[in-house]
Amino acid sequence: MSDLSGQLIIHLRRVDKALSVSIQSSRPFAAVHVFTGKPVLDVVRQLPALFSICATAQAQACASACEQALGLAASRGARQRRALLLRAETVKEHLWRLLLDWPKAFAWTPAHEPMASAMRAFFDLRAAQQADQEPFTPGADLASMQPQAQRMQVQRLLDSVAQSVFGRLPGLWLQQIRDHDSLSAWAMSADTIAAALVRALLRTDLAGLGRSEVRVLPDWGTQALSVDLAQALGSAHADAFVAAPSWRGNAHETTPFARCTQCPLVADLAVKYGNGLLPRLAALLVELAEVSLALSGERQCSSHQCLSQPAAESIPETSGGIGIGHAHAARGLLLHRVELTHGQVADYRVLAPTEWNFHPDGVVASGLAGSGFIGIADDAELLRRAALYVTAVDPCVAYQLSVS
């Protein structure tokens, strides 16, 4: 099936001494209706191909939704494999941001070779985990992995993290880098692109760029949130909600920064820079280190919202034949809702992080309209900084930026 990602059109318009920000989306929200009338297993196989960005997270949310609708439960071993693959995908996606996208936004040379090595390691790991059976099949019954075998499979991917990002083991970095001063000291001494990015933000006026007052979305485990969103996705206005989601009347953000607001480093940086560029970059680094530790089996993610623990889902109660599945995708909270009739799909909805973060009144629109952009007279410089901020929030789809 074709990938129907669509794109975002972001336009900045100078109005007196302010900026008006318009965000329009061509993302095909109705594309999921192609699954109407299809058997569950066909949907589970085809959906990750339709939404190939973060395909593992899509498969996780789809499997969880279908299992709830069918009254099935995957074995502990299957849940472990799903968690491993989702963590590996998060590592791969965060590496892509740090090694390719952020350098490109600064007009630097991207680190293509280490990224290519990480991609090969990810695909080899995925093939090994799916060799005997697809773990995302609803109700999959797979044995638990042996810890030693798991460590061997993930080591190549983790080597890329240590060498190309932190310049040391991720666990050691987490122990040592816990505030502004220690982050600055690491950035000045380490010889990695990630350290160079931190240096660039600290040496300019960009560290707080894009800060706004838009709230972060609470953890999916918050009952009020899960119940409200489940109801919205099943309502007569679900299409409009998916296109521009809000909670309790407000736009929210769901990003690595949102998941890491309680982490010591991110919390310390936010005191001075709010939700600007440097706290966002730091959150990406913290989450990469945390997920790397969880991927290695050393510990579960602990200092931020946990990324796909291999435990049973925390989901709102639904009527028979209806399921809600979620995944903490690399870019934020991903939700799927499925309604089944006689084993076939009657309705399917997908709510992706992009729609929260690039809401017309969301964190990107608010950030781009802020004081860090208003005073820039040169159009080229305004677009350069805007592209850097959009990269930091990460739309997961192509976008066009313009100014008038």
Assess the beta-strand content as a share of residues: 5-15%
State mean pLDDT (0 to 100 scale): 92
What is the CA–CA distance across the termini?
A: 38 Å
User: What's the SSE pattern?
Assistant: EEHHHHHHHHEHHEHHHEEEHHHHE
How helical, in percent, are the residues? Answer: 40-55%
Radius of gyration: 21 Å
Q: In CATH's first tier, which class applies?
A: Mainly Alpha
Low-confidence stretches: 308-313
CATH architecture: Orthogonal Bundle
Q: What are the main properties of this structure?
A:
50% helix, alpha/beta, Cytochrome-c3 Hydrogenase, chain B, three-stranded mixed β-sheet, 404 residues, three-stranded antiparallel β-sheet, globular
Summarize the structure.
The chain is α/β, with parallel strands linked by helices.
Can you walk through the features of this model?
The chain has 404 residues and is of the alpha/beta class. The protein has one domain (7-136, 144-403): Orthogonal Bundle (Cytochrome-c3 Hydrogenase, chain B), CATH 1.10.645. Helix content is 50%, strand content 13%. The chain contains 17 helices and eight strands. The protein has helices at residues 40-50, 55-70, 76-105, 112-129, 147-166, 170-176, 180-189, 193-202, 223-233, 238-243, 256-259, 264-273, 277-296, 353-357, 363-368, 371-374, 379-393, and strands spanning 7-15, 18-25, 215-216, 252-253, 322-329, 332-341, 344-351, 398-403. The strands form three sheets. The chain has a three-stranded mixed β-sheet. Strand 1 and strand 2 form a beta hairpin. Helix 3 (76-105) runs parallel beside helix 5 (147-166), helix 6 (170-176) packs across helix 13 (277-296) and helix 7 packs across helix 8 (193-202). The model is unreliable at 308-313 (pLDDT under 50).
